[in-house]
Amino acid sequence: MNWFIAVVKKYAVFDGRARRKEYWMYVLFYVLIAVGLAIVEGLVGSPGFLGMLLALGLLVPSIGVTIRRLHDTERSGWWILIGFVPLVGGIVLLVFMCLDGTGGPNKFGADPKSAPEP
Questions:
Q1: 84/39 Cα distance (integer angstroms)
Q2: Which band of pLDDT confidence, cut at 50, 70 and 90, is reported for residue 115?
Q3: What 3-state class would DSSP assign to 70?
Q4: What is the pLDDT of residue 46?
Q5: What is the pLDDT of residues 42-57, one digit of tens each?
Q6: pLDDT, tens only, 17-49
Q7: Residue 6, Cβ neighbours under 10 Å: how many?
Q8: Predicted local confidence at residue 47, as pLDDT
Q9: Whole-model pTM?
Q10: Which residues contact 43 (CB under 8 A, 6 or more apart)?
Q11: Tell me, what DSSP letter sits at residue 91?
Q12: What secondary structure, in 3-state letters, does 31-63 show?
């Protein structure tokens, strides 16, 4: 949960680097919260307002952590736009998110693996 909170605290930070663990732990807790809200909304009979609020509220942190993850693989944040290409774009973005980051400092900052964990 600390990884999720750390990403939300960096709400609009688009520079620097994010390691794989930070990105995937954020995604894991995002999905768990979304599924939990969907179950609650299904039981109550709500049309999905809470899920939409969650998605809207975490849109900017999600973009931020994705861009920082791309920076860790030595790619520009503009690569996030490849996700809009049908079928292939999402797969390419998934592969980029799974790749190991560059060892040592790169043009986007210091190696996040050398920093203390949140």
A1: 29
A2: confident
A3: helix
A4: 81
A5: 998 888 888 899 999 9
A6: 999 999 999 999 999 999 999 999 999 888 888
A7: 17
A8: 83
A9: 0.89
A10: none
A11: H
A12: HHHHHHHHHHHHHHCCCCHHHHHHHHHCHHHHH
Name the residue with tokens 């975490």: 58
pLDDT at 83 over 80: yes
Please answer whether residues 82 and 89 qualify as being in contact, where contact means their C-beta atoms are separated by less than 8 angstroms: yes
d(CA 67, CA 57): 17
- Cα–Cα distance for residue pair 108/89, rounded to 1 Å: 23
Distance separating alpha carbons of residues 118 and 83, to the nearest angstrom: 29
DSSP state of 82: G
Q: Could you say which DSSP state residue 87 is in? A: T
Tell me, what's the pLDDT at 97? 95
Residues pairing with 106 in the sheet: 109
The length of the chain, given as a count of residues: 118
Largest CA distance in the chain: 51
What the block records as the tokens of 95 is: 């592969």
Phi and psi torsions of 106, nearest 5°: -130, -170
Give me the amino acid identity at 102.
T
